[in-house]
Design goal:
3 domains, Defensin A-like, Jag_KH, cell wall biogenesis/degradation, cytoplasm, 9 strands, RNA binding, 6 helices, 26% strand, chaperone, alpha+beta
């Protein structure tokens, strides 16, 4: 945590001096006024500078990156972690020679890391973030697989006139299924069960 104590003719001047030295803006800092200072007679005699302590707020993305690195290190120290932040979404890209081990069967290990990361960011940040943990394009490949699965099972539901259950999956994967079939008027979809075993059911339209 970076912090600095600065002085100035006024509290505002002292704060601005500290912010410049830390190279941050006021909304990225916590400000403590140590002494408001004193102007003195005619602004000269008996004057006393204002003193403030400015502490840089901890960056939630940096704390999350450190947290994920600790988890990934347990699998393989050579795996790399790279975070990007866009609006309220944090994307974590994992890469390395043994990345398949980190993905796991049908992305189960990767999903578990993402779940833990989503819980962690709630502790690190004072606003809501969505966390996506990806591994060398796995999410895009998984999305295409889910769309194909959704269309295939929708056809089965129509042909057999029976509802089809899909295996339990995380909420964002269920959303892919719902979105892929939302314009198919031959079927309807809903989610049933309780987390973490909630699943999508495809029903033939009545």
């Amino acid at each position: 945590m970076r912090q600095i104590t600065a002085t100035g003719q006024t509290v505002d001047a002292a704060v601005q001096s500290a912010l410049q030295q830390l190279n941050i803006t006021e909304d990225q800092a916590k400000i403590e006024i140590i002494d408001e200072g004193k102007k003195g007679i005619l602004g000269l005699f008996g004057s006393k500078p204002a003193i403030v302590k400015v502490i840089q707020n901890e960056n939630p993305a940096e704390k999350l990156e450190e947290y994920i690195r600790k988890i990934v290190k347990e699998f393989d120290e050579s795996l790399q972690v790279e975070l990007t932040v866009q609006n309220n979404q944090i994307t974590c890209e994992l890469s390395g020679e043994k990345i398949a081990m980190l993905i796991g069967k049908r992305g189960q290990t990767l999903n578990a890391i993402q779940y833990l990361a989503q819980l962690a960011i709630h502790q690190f940040a004072d606003k809501y973030y969505t966390v996506i943990v990806d591994a060398e394009g796995y999410r895009a490949r998984r999305k295409e697989t889910l769309i194909q699965l959704a269309n295939r099972l929708a056809e089965r539901a129509v042909q057999t006139r029976r509802s089809v259950k899909i295996e339990p999956m995380p909420s964002y994967e269920r959303k892919i299924i719902h979105t892929a079939l939302q314009n198919n008027r031959k079927i309807t979809t809903d989610s049933e069960g309780t987390e973490p075993n909630r699943y999508v059911v495809i029903h033939p339209a009545k």
